[in-house]
Design brief:
Blueprint (H helix, E strand, L loop, with lengths): L2 E4 L10 E4 L6 H7 L18 E6 L9 H7 L9 E3 L10 E4 L13
Cofactor: [2Fe-2S] cluster
Keywords: 2Fe-2S, Electron transport, Iron, Iron-sulfur, Metal-binding, Transport
GO biological process, one term: P450-containing electron transport chain
């Protein structure tokens, strides 16, 4: 069973975590079911960047991102080559090490 190592995050996961995942689950779903409240403003529909994560290890085991995800990621704060949307990053058979960025952009909840 693959594991997801979540690196420490001041607000969401101060101690970091090691989570068991099933192949076929998304990084976001695994985090949420383990009490790590990664924001997901569009309810996992690949229409925002609030569930942006950086896959520090195991990135190559993920299926390639699709154009819609790439377009969304272009708007993400702190974009890196190993960035993915947690709602689109499907766990395969390899362990992952994931970093949750300190900031997200949520255009739906920003004060205008």
């Amino acid at each position: 069973m693959p594991k997801i190592v979540v690196l420490p995050h001041d607000d969401l996961c101060p101690e970091g975590a090691v989570l068991e995942a099933n192949s076929g689950e998304t990084v976001l779903d695994v985090a949420l079911k383990n009490g790590i409240g990664i924001e997901h403003a569009c309810e996992k529909s690949c229409a925002c960047t609030t569930c942006h994560v950086i896959v520090r290890e195991g990135f190559d085991s993920l299926e390639e991102s699709e154009e819609l995800e790439d377009d969304m990621l272009d708007k993400a704060w702190g974009l890196e080559p190993e960035s993915r949307l947690g709602c689109q990053a499907v766990v395969a058979d390899e362990d992952l090490v994931v970093e949750i960025p300190r900031y997200t952009l949520n255009h739906a909840s920003e004060d205008h």
